[in-house]
Amino acid sequence: MSLLSVKDLIFTKCQIIVHTHLIDQKMKLVIFCVTLVAFANLANGKVLSDPVKSYENHQVLRVKIGSEEASNNLSEIAGVTFWNEGRIGGYADIMVAPKDITQVTENLIKQELDFSTMVENVGDLIRLEKVPAINRNEKPSSEHSMTWTEYHEQDDVESFLDYLANTYDFVEVESIGESYEGRPMRVVKVCKNGCGNKPAMWIDGGIHAREWITPAAVTWMMHELIDNDADHSDLTENLDWYILGIVNPDGYAYTKTNDRLWRKTRSPNDGGVCSGTDANRNWGYHWNNGGSSDYGCSETYHGAEAFSEVENRNIRDFVSKHKDQIKFFNTIHSYSQLVLLPWGDTTDNAPGYDKLKNLADKSNEALYAVHGTRFDVGCIPCLLYIASGGSMDWALGEAGIPYSYGMELRDTGRYGFLLPADQIIPTAEETWAFHQNAARMIADEFA
């Protein structure tokens, strides 16, 4: 029997009971019946489906990882959520709920792990993040809703894509499919004199839902590339651009309504007990080869199989169709201020490593020149941790795209995933400088 039919049955039975009892008993029976109907609604997801998760008084601790033993000891402590797993010789960032803070800190001390409190109250950062920035240099457009002074819903992003396609004859928006929950996935194609005749750049953001700065920065780069084309027309004369602002639309929407720090997709898994797959552990090159989990409730769950997530299949199919043209692939993340090179599952140098590193280093110099923000350059395990099944590894190892990267944008932990809105434009400006320099190096080699 469906939940809806249960509710209807309760209501019908209650009507019969009320009409067969004395008047002075009716009020109690009505209250009882209303309660039963409310319970049925609750079961049917109408009163409360997923509650909004609170992070009030959650703390983020920074823990020194001096050895492999220290890393293993930290991973065994209950009650922690990793913001950043860290690497040997570096630091891990862990979030702890208020009910667990005493026990966790006692365990850290017992394990002789040095730590400090980096964020006193995650709830305060979530509130701060909602404060719009003041930008006196640009007036809001009457043709779309994007401002880059605050973090926007996907609907605002979609209106911006429509504006670009309707305004510029060298811009097209192509649907590459829908997310698991039916949200649009649309790639902005920037091609003068038609697509497919020039080397191409691929950029995407938002594969991890909680990393709000990445769709914001990627859409700002669309704005700069297209609206201000006259300032750097060589970038569109010599190259095609394919840009996807939000890889994980369902997860992004969920961070807006239910859980600000949700990371994964929203497809069901593990027999329906948990939801979501880590979309950046689900790609089909060296999938499930370390740094991911086969437990469906884990934040790094790699999926039941490679490309189990429809969002990744949509991107795979588009990129595969254009793989001979695409020479540069960059998937944008946060946080840590890093430029990441393949591979994710080994410290062995990827094919063409010297050229990969040279382009990254020179583009990183251009990034630094904008606001003085320092990024490190290196392979994923060299700077972070083992992470197999990522899109950048697939782009190089399977699609054969010669310059494949990932980036971790601002900051280094003061705000983490909850970067204030007044940092959107500065972050986007320096990220754009990186891509502007990289694009010219790609054009010099391939155009």
Please tell me about this protein's structure:
This protein is an alpha/beta fold and 447 residues long. It folds into three domains: 3-43; 59-121, 2-Layer Sandwich (Alpha-Beta Plaits); 154-446, 3-Layer(aba) Sandwich (Aminopeptidase), CATH 3.40.630. Helix content is 38%, strand content 17%. It has 14 helices and 14 strands. The strands form three sheets. The protein has an eight-stranded mixed beta sheet, sandwiched between helices. Helix 1 runs antiparallel to helix 2 (23-43) and helix 7 (213-227) crosses helix 14 (424-446).
Short overview:
By secondary structure, the chain is of the alpha/beta class. It has helices spanning 3-19, 23-43, 68-75, 101-110, 122-129, 154-167, 213-227, 234-237, 249-257, 310-321, 353-371, 380-383, 391-397, 424-446, and strands at 59-65, 80-84, 90-96, 115-119, 171-178, 184-190, 200-205, 240-244, 268-269, 274-275, 326-334, 338-341, 376-379, 403-409. It has three domains: 3-43; 59-121, Alpha-Beta Plaits; 154-446, Aminopeptidase (3-Layer(aba) Sandwich).
